[in-house]
Design goal:
Strand order of the largest sheet: 1-2-3-4-5-6-7
Largest sheet: 7 strands, mixed
Strand content: 15-25%
Bound molecules: zinc ion
Radius of gyration: 19 Å
Structural class: alpha/beta
Helix content: 25-40%
Number of strands: 12
Shape: globular
Order of helices and strands: HHEEEEHEHEHHHHEEEEEHEHHH
Number of helices: 12
CATH superfamily: Ribonuclease Z/Hydroxyacylglutathione hydrolase-like
Distance between the termini: 30 Å
């Protein structure tokens, strides 16, 4: 995890409202590819030739089959065109795009796809995505600043793509970001190329509209933000998050995984079923920490938010730790 510069950290902490709408926006400035600047995202191959795009938002997954490709998650606003160009450079045009949930670091690039590619999301994601449109448009300016600044500015092509998005903002409406195929069942199966794909919505967890996307024949699953692998998780109580529900979702996913399953988190490194179990355990431990602080040490919420639990040493997204602790406190005392 790249450490944020003071300027970047300040930029992130200036607007908590923006952060609340975007989720863990700290990923915004994370990890620019250092060795080969020919792509903005760091594309890493995984099982079955699928590729994971790291950096500039939640982890995206590109799966290819029979000359078509499917993309799961769309990065920050302004980056849709770049993401699409880099994904399709692998040779297969996109025939399906998915949002694992509405947060802007997973759906911000949507408008680059919705006109000609079916975009799948949970039914409850749609109104939330439309409601955050103005925020997304404003946010793209900050994405551009992030790409232009720093030690390794993005390529001219990427900068031009983001600027073109910003120039077109006046003509972009909420509907341009909106998913066009809505999932409202606990599990829906579909076919993509020769692959079967399962969309699971087990219940509210990270938000009220989380989708888990599973490819049984590849034994590959994208968890969206139900997994912040070895990172402090963003618990979006305002969007219906519940850590108990979150754990339940993880337990249900573990049931269809085995020890070979490749697990893609929304944030963090590629992992396996142990990463899912560790996320369940994270919530058990952090509840213990907060309960002890509150009931035994009589700490206020503000004091709890300043804790640095030793059990999570080395966890990334350290800058959202206070909010993680605060959300667990709020959940415990019943104020949400
Ligand atoms: Zn999220």
């Amino acid at each position: 995890m790249t450490t944020l510069s003071r300027r970047q950290f300040n930029a992130l902490t200036l607007s908590t409202a923006t952060l609340a709408a975007l989720g863990p926006a700290a990923g915004l400035f994370a990890r620019r590819r250092a060795d080969a600047p020919s792509t903005l995202f760091e594309w890493r191959e995984t099982v079955g030739g699928a590729k994971v795009a790291f950096g500039e938002g939640g982890n995206a997954l590109l799966v290819m089959s029979r000359g078509q490709s499917m993309l799961i998650d769309c990065k920050h606003p302004g980056l849709g065109a770049t993401l699409r160009r880099e994904a399709e450079a692998y040779g297969s045009p996109l025939s399906m795009v998915v949002n694992t949930h509405h947060h802007g670091d997973h759906s911000g690039g949507n408008s680059a796809f919705t006109k000609d590619v079916p975009l799948v999301a949970h039914a409850r994601a749609k109104p939330r995505i439309i409601a955050q449109t103005e925020e997304m448009l404003g946010r793209s300016q900050r994405v551009l600043q992030g790409l232009e600044g720093g030690d390794k500015p993005a390529s001219k092509q990427v900068i031009d793509e983001v600027k073109a998005f910003i120039d077109s903002v006046a003509g972009i409406k909420g509907e341009d970001f909106a998913p066009t195929r809505l999932i409202d069942q606990r599990m829906e199966a579909d076919k993509f190329g020769e692959l079967e794909v399962h969309f699971h919505h087990i219940g509210a967890g990270h938000t009220d509209n989380d989708l888990v996307v599973y490819f049984p024949s590849l034994n590959l699953v994208h968890m969206g933000d139900l997994l912040f692998h070895r990172n402090y998780p963003f618990i979006d109580l305002s969007a219906g998050a519940t850590t108990m529900g979150w754990q339940e979702s993880l337990r249900e996913v573990i049931k269809f995984c085995d020890d070979q399953t490749v697990v893609i988190p929304g944030h963090g490194e590629i992992t396996d079923v142990n990463g899912l179990a560790a996320q369940i355990e994270f919530f058990n431990k952090i509840r213990e920490v907060v309960k002890h602080a509150k009931d035994v040490e009589s700490m206020t919420k503000e004091e709890v938010m300043k804790l640095t639990p030793g059990a999570f040493e080395g966890y990334g997204l350290e800058q959202i730790r206070p909010r993680t602790l605060g959300a667990v406190y709020d959940e415990m005392v019943g104020t949400r």
